[in-house]
Design a protein that fits this description.
mainly alpha; 5 helices; 31% helix; flat
């Protein structure tokens, strides 16, 4: 709390704000790190809005790629492209791209990918089972003297 005085008293001073040279040097030295951090923080809606103004072969880029990036590599976003592997293309402008993609897959033997099998162990609290003798698949006969 300020006491009333007859002499002007400076409380707050406004002036131009300048960034510290150390901060600017740090940001410049770690440019890739901060670029990747910003790119990873983008959500699908923001990416879709950024892609809305671009086209590829006359088609809106938002229709061709999924708006959720698959990865951030260096300072690039990697997207999944929606290309049919066979049949007639949805748009005749896309026919050349689909044909080139199918040719690329065939040259590399990827047109018929092998099924992928994985064994994934799942932890459990354990299992306890006991067969009732004389019933179903239990191998011994019931012996009443044992129980």
């Amino acid at each position: 709390m300020l006491k009333p005085t007859s002499v002007p008293y400076e409380v707050v001073k406004f002036g131009s704000v300048r960034s510290a040279p150390e901060l600017v040097d740090h940001l410049e030295a770690n440019r890739l790190h901060y670029t990747q951090a910003v790119l990873r923080a983008l959500d699908a809606a923001t990416v879709a809005a950024l892609l809305a103004r671009y086209t590829y072969r006359g088609l809106p880029l938002g229709q061709i790629v999924d708006p959720q990036p698959l990865a951030v590599v260096a300072n690039f976003l990697v997207f999944k492209m929606n290309i049919a592997t066979g049949g007639e293309p949805d748009d005749p402008r896309w026919a050349e791209e689909q044909k080139a993609w199918q040719s690329w897959l065939e040259r590399r033997g990827l047109d018929r990918p092998a099924p992928k099998t994985e064994i994934i162990p799942l932890p459990s609290g354990g299992l306890f089972a006991e067969a009732v003798l004389g019933h179903y698949h239990a191998a011994e006969k019931t012996d009443l003297t044992r129980f």
